Amino acid sequence: MADYTKMWQELDVDIEKHDGLCEVLPMFYENIYLSQENRPENMNYYNFVISEVHGLRIKELQDSKKEDKKVVGSFCVFVPDEITLALNCVPVGICSGSQFWVPDGEKVMPRNTCPLIKASIGAKLSRTCPYFQSCDMVVGETTCDGKKKAWEILGEHMDVHVMDLPQMKREKDKLHWIDEMNTYKDVLEEKTGNKLSFENLKEKTELVNKKRKVLKRLYDLRKCDPVPISGKDALLVSQIAFYDDIDRFIEQTNNLCDELEERVKKDEGVFDKDTPRIMITGTPMSIPNWKIHHIVETSDAVVVCEETCTGTRYFENQVSEDAENMDEQFENLANRYLGINCACFTPNEGRVEDVLRYVDEYKVDAVVYNSLQFCSTYAIEYKNIEKALKEKGIPVIMIETDYSEEDTGQIKTRVEALVEMVREKKGVMA
Amino acid sequence: MADYTKMWQELDVDIEKHDGLCEVLPMFYENIYLSQENRPENMNYYNFVISEVHGLRIKELQDSKKEDKKVVGSFCVFVPDEITLALNCVPVGICSGSQFWVPDGEKVMPRNTCPLIKASIGAKLSRTCPYFQSCDMVVGETTCDGKKKAWEILGEHMDVHVMDLPQMKREKDKLHWIDEMNTYKDVLEEKTGNKLSFENLKEKTELVNKKRKVLKRLYDLRKCDPVPISGKDALLVSQIAFYDDIDRFIEQTNNLCDELEERVKKDEGVFDKDTPRIMITGTPMSIPNWKIHHIVETSDAVVVCEETCTGTRYFENQVSEDAENMDEQFENLANRYLGINCACFTPNEGRVEDVLRYVDEYKVDAVVYNSLQFCSTYAIEYKNIEKALKEKGIPVIMIETDYSEEDTGQIKTRVEALVEMVREKKGVMA
User: Fold this and answer.
1) Which pairs from A43-51 meet CB under 8 Å and 24+ separation?
2) Residues on chain A touching B376 (C-beta within 8 angstroms)
3) 3-state helix, strand, coil in chain B (%, to 5)
């Protein structure tokens, strides 16, 4: 890997502390990812991306800035990348998946806060995330109490714009969201000096739809048995989608899917046919949070679907491309984004329907409901999802956890018991 | 006390379980309240109210229902009682302050949920709260993640209407809140068959303002040194304001204030002059949550103000009475309600200003920041309030607690240390 120290210094990264992070990640990745057998060859691209996660991609962001592009960070699938891209900005999902950042977050946030939020804030405050350091601004949203209040703290340290996501999905809430997207557009126009055009927005809408399509293509391939790609690898692809160059990502992921299609034709998979198929539903998993997937896939089971924001919620439903003017464009955007069934909405019946549909589509044997600690909305929705799954005869366990490794053994025991039950039911021996 | 068993049975109260609650409360109240020395004589009214808390007041509600009034429960200071009253309904604040209800709440809610929410839900599910059982409907609001999702569960058991409180305070958010109040009006009109008139709303607006005025009068008297009423008693009056008959409450509380004025004239107080004066700021305390006040006032200090929803946030700011038509009425209501500086808003700078102003007005020596466990919004705001108070030289401690008594000793130790520090600073001996 090239030496990026100078670049990091220019970004005011805390070099010494950041070195600590850089030392850990490669071995962590090797243990979890490179140890997998029978991986698709095209995963090499994503291996490379990870090996350069704070290097080459950050250099690309700096190069973009030299071309007068602004870098805009976000933390949530509701922030419309279409608008960001159409105003000649580079959208990046922000680091929030490592325990490394949690202690610094806890200096300004209560411990009883979800680890994703503590890690985000800690990443900024400790100056050890070059993505954060590259951002000209970040866009927060009012999706939960913790995030809503975290932006106030973050705003003391950098330029933050908050989008007020509605809490319901009535017609007037859609109008409110259209208005919020317009305000976001105004803020970005002011920031960049650019003007949003119908053509640009149309072009970028089609581009982001292409990204959604390739992710959908990848997920559709996971419906096969044997499954041609591990859940861990699919999760990684999803995670990288949040910050990689969008054109390259689409191309590379299509290449991966081509390879997976060949595998499917040859009835090849990464796990044996009839391996217990697990769906994970719940809160997002950002890099390098691979904890639950790793546990499942080292317990004689495979993750075939994630009903999460780093899974189906990120790519399901296209933005309609039939708009003939800007107002229609914004309405189409609102329709797509408010179609996401996040637990932040009340009510949120659509999520139960999604989960049940995915169980059928992905031939799911059992569900792991994963909630980040102190995430009230997802934790509270568990009872409803559990009830619906039980009525369908699908076993489910609830795992509430953070980024630490302390509970790994305990979680593994529970997952193994779940897998064992599925195997008995299917009549398959481990 | 009369025998209300038949009434409770008619309300489908779980009599046996409810007996368990009734057995505990009187002794609990006696220990905490009746043990106080030098109480104002007019506190006898509130003693009586508590002794009949599940009796006479519930009977009154049943009598109202016979007169075709609907009983409407709520959990939050944002639900506009003016509209409820003007449509000939009886608003009641709902039980949520006892550990007694928490285990039943935890059957359907995650343990990592604020005790107030768990207690509310548990009170309904266990059928041991005759207020809940008397309600024709309850009105929830989207003030926090936990409540927002709790209404979904509650809605499986009774008629629930949810008001979508905005998360910001911009002009468009005010319009949104006006619209939500109109929707609430529509729902109540449908429920009651009544029609909201300008005159009725005007009359009830003036009535609710009168309630606010008498509470303000009570609080203003607490600014004196020696303070003529204990914090515990003032809290009780506030708590009772949420569900007592409004006309009687205003009358009785004015009587109490008359007595307190006499005390002030005679320089009489419930605690010695120069007793350390504590302000409590944070989350609401509903009956019978007297935990922190009792600890403070048995530690040689007195609570002189609550910057909480069962304190200043409930009565500060009147609704302007200058409206000449319904639209203006609703705008005046919105202006008053969105003037409440609840941590559910982002940003919420107004709360820091309120806290600093009360420190001066109430001659506060130290602040106890009280947050119910797992209340993210208030817990996160602590850092900001702490910073502002420290800059002003006012000591502050953060107490995060639930309804159990397990941490009482630990909290008392911390409060005593705080009081000791204040005494040293003031040069007063205990």
Assistant:
1) A43/A233, A43/A236, A43/A256, A45/A252, A45/A255, A45/A256, A46/A233, A46/A236, A46/A237, A46/A240, A46/A252, A49/A240, A49/A244, A50/A25, A50/A236, A50/A240, A50/A287, A51/A1, A51/A26
2) 110, 112-113, 144-146, 149, 374, 376
3) 55, 10, 35
**CA B107 to mean position of chain CA atoms:** 26
The residue of chain B nearest to residue A342, with distances taken between CA atoms, is B149
The confidence band for A416, taking pLDDT boundaries of 50, 70 and 90, is very high
Residue among B109, B113, B376 minimizing CB distance to A146: B376
- Across the interface, which of A172, A347, A382 has its CB nearest the CB of B152? A347
Task: Give the mean pLDDT of chain A.
Answer: 97
User: Is B378 near chain A, with CB under 8 Å?
Assistant: no
**For B50-62, b where at least 16 C-beta lie within 10 A, e where not — what string?**
bebbbbebbbbbe
How far apart are the CA of A152 and the nearest CA of chain B, in angstroms? 7
The enclosing H or E element of B421 equals helix B408-426
- Residue B79 and residue B180: Cα distance in Å, rounded? 10
Is this structure's pTM higher than 0.90? yes
What pLDDT is stored for residue A122 in this prediction? Answer: 97
Bridge-based pairing state of the strands B89-93 and B70-74: parallel
* Min distance A142 CA to chain B CA atoms (Å): 8
CB contact under 8 A, B112 and A166: no
- Summarize the confidence of residues A2-30 as an average pLDDT: 94
What are the chain B neighbours of A343 within 8 Å (beta carbons)? 149
> What is the per-residue burial (b if ≥16 Cβ within 10 Å, else e) of A76-101?
bbbbbbbbbbbbbbbbbbbbbbbbbb
- Say how far apart CA B112 and CA A110 lie, in whole Å: 14
The pair of three-digit structure tokens given for residue B270, joined into one six-digit string: 């419930």
Chain B residues with beta carbon closer than 8 angstroms to that of A162: 168, 346
Q: How confident is the model at residue B314 (pLDDT cuts 50, 70, 90)?
A: very high
- Verify whether the Cβ–Cβ distance A343 to B108 is below 8 Å: no
Question: Is residue A113 less than 8 Å (CB to CB) from chain B?
Answer: yes
CB of A376 within 8 Å of a chain B CB? The answer is yes
User: For an interface test with A, which of B114, B120, B145 has the most A Cβ atoms less than 10 Å from its Cβ?
Assistant: B145
Q: What is the mean pLDDT of residues A395-400?
A: 98
Q: For chain B, give the longest Cα–Cα distance.
A: 64
How far is the C-alpha of A81 from the C-alpha of B181, rounded, in Å? 34
Going by pLDDT thresholds of 50, 70 and 90, the confidence category of residue B427 is confident
A429 pLDDT more than 80 = no
Task: Please compute Rg for chain B using Cα positions.
Answer: 21
Q: Closest partner residue to A109 among B144, B168, B380, by Cβ?
A: B380
Determine, for residues A172 and B150 on separate chains, whether the beta-carbon distance falls below 8 Å.
no
Whole-angstrom Cα distance, residue A102 to residue A81?
A: 27
Q: Among A224, A18, A283, which Cα is nearest to A292's?
A: A283
- Cα maximum dimension of chain A: 64
Please report, for residues A38, A88, B123, the alpha-carbon distance to residue B5 in angstroms, rounded to integers and kept in the order given.
71, 71, 18
Report how far residue B287's alpha carbon sits from residue B129's, in angstroms, rounded to the nearest whole number: 12
ipTM: 0.95
Any A CB within 8 A of B167 CB: yes
